[in-house]
Amino acid sequence: MTKLLPQNQIDAFKARAASIEHPMEMIIDVLRAIQDHHRWVPDEGVELAAEILGTSPLKVEEVATFYDKIYRQEVGQKVIHVCDSICCWTREAERIYAYLQECLGVAPGETTADGAFTLLPTCCLGACGEAPAMMIGLTTYGKLTEEKIERILAAERAGGGA
Ligand code: FES
Hints:
Layout: H1 7-19, H2 27-38, H3 43-53, H4 57-64, E1 78-83, H5 86-89, H6 93-104, E2 117-122, E3 134-136, E4 139-141, H7 146-157
Parallel strand pairs: 1-2
Antiparallel strand pairs: 1-3, 3-4
Bound molecules: FE2/S2 (inorganic) cluster.
């Protein structure tokens, strides 16, 4: 299972799960750890999480598929979550989303040919005052324009944020 999570991390999670009354409260931590290590959570990751938490894969799957920032399919090196909610739509998100697709050469849900980015819509990022907004990794970018998108993509491709 070290492909999904280092053995010492599996052991640490199991020890913690055994010491608390409701191990399921750790589920996001476990899924995020698998994702951080493997980039996305395959079926084997769901089974590993279930084993760690002492529950069924179905219970893990219910949570994993509820959160759109847990990836159950392979994604690129970075995931771009474009806000698909009302404040952003009233501030020209449609134009920005189209421009992003043009720059990346992908449709929503797809990964660029070089594997650098996966483009996904998401619900409100909580940055409505900065609309239109998107998130890459843990960074939220707001007040997006075509020029700003070009700068952000170049900086993210180079390994950092804008
Ligand atoms: S509606 Fe886009 S950040 Fe809230």
